[in-house]
Amino acid sequence: MTYYQKLEQHAQKLSRISHLSAICSWDQAAKMPEGGNAARSEAMAELALIHHELATAPQLAEWYEKAAAESLSAEQKISLKEMKRRWQMENLLPSELVEQKSLAGSACEHAWRTQRKENNWHEFSQNLEKVVQLARKEAQIRAEATGLSRYDAMLDLYEPGMTCEKIDQIFGDVKTWLPQLIQDVRQKQLSDEVITPKGPFPVAQQKTLSLDIMGKLGFDFKHGRLDVSTHPFCGGVPTDVRITTRYDEADFTSALMGVIHETGHARYEQGLPVQWAGLPVGEARSMGVHESQSLFFEMQLSRSQPFIEVLAPLAREVFDRNNDKALSTENMALYCTRVEPGYIRVDADEVTYPAHIILRYEIERDLIEGKIEVADIPDLWDKKMTEYLGLSTKGNFTDGCMQDIHWTDGSFGYFPSYTLGAMYAAQFMAAMSREMNVENLIRERNLQPIFNWLDKHVWKKASFLSTDDLLKEATGESLNPTFFKTHLENRYLNN
Length: 495
What we know:
By secondary structure, the chain is mainly α. Helices cover about 65% and strands about 5% of the residues. It has helices at about 5-30, 35-55, 60-65, 75-90, 95-115, 120-145, 150-160, 165-190, 205-215, 250-270, 285-300, 305-320, 330-335, 355-370, 375-390, 415-435, 440-445, 450-455, 465-475, 480-490, and strands at about 225-230, 235, 240-245. A hairpin with a 2-residue loop joins strand 2 and strand 3 (about 240-245). It is globular.
């Protein structure tokens, strides 16, 4: 057996452990009784420790050195490079820190479920402080090893190659035109007569509609399922993808669009190359690329006029409301593209959404860099929400700085992926539209050419290309935020 083959076997063993951890995490969020959290947290911390010890095994240094001298195919060389990158990143953290992070994250996330409902910032902040302290330790270790800033070192975990300097430039540009765009769109929509669909919309019927749409979007139910959790997410592994949503009987579109969003994530996972399963090179390129797929499905595809022409009749049928004007195609098209500043990120429209991300990015960047402390978050959140969206969250922690799950487990550096993903998605759609008439395909209920394009240019590329090279091959150029701005203007101002 060659050293490269040994490394492949080792990587697949790590992948199987990650598989178990992913399913345990899904169960903890979707099915586990409350009383099981302490034991589950300990078990998952133990699993994280086992994974870390295997990933940092002493013999790996020699294996990588000798594998590099072997005769490898071009694909194997890329695979070896990606395995080594992951190994180097994992090797930086001491086992004690890995275990502490897992325990603190599980405790913070589990308590958050109740504390958020109770608007209990005081107790939540005590747990969050422990998570932040450990995240700063991790960031410092990674920064010293890579020569990056502390926050850039964390950002690199989710979006390799991206830096604060680049994001500051991109987001800084967005801040120059987004406030005016929001104002212009809201002014334009004042003349629209929109009927808000009135509930109740029974959960059972919402689930039926969700499953139907998932099927039309190509979700493979033999290798995945839909469940309920406090915070919608996509987890599991490519052969067993778990997506969740949360239902609101007063508004069926909230859960449905959440399901469509997570289905985009799931299709990416299910479309990854089978022949490279279990190896780092066969995994998703980055969280930004992952978000590009969920936002392509939710925003580029499902909120388009042609898709609403498909969705509205289905909704009328499922809810048995054939004469409900609120569920007419015309009204649903207006309703699903309303722009109105709101408190909740996951419920935000695509025009105001970047403001939510920029706010979080600026806070977590300064938090990890030690420029602010956990105690400063509520006031900063209120200040930025007021400045960016004209809404105050003073004293409202539930709808303010306690609404997201990301910081509870130390996922600092993740948030920029959302708006970067929206930009990637707009660029993918622009490139795709140069090759086919996307709107006609949707109206004809023929989505397969769209999926084939994504499969060829994104899904099957996995991690063989950097994000920048993936964009160049798929669209002909590096990230160009102009496509995102143009998309918003075309949909909301020029239609």
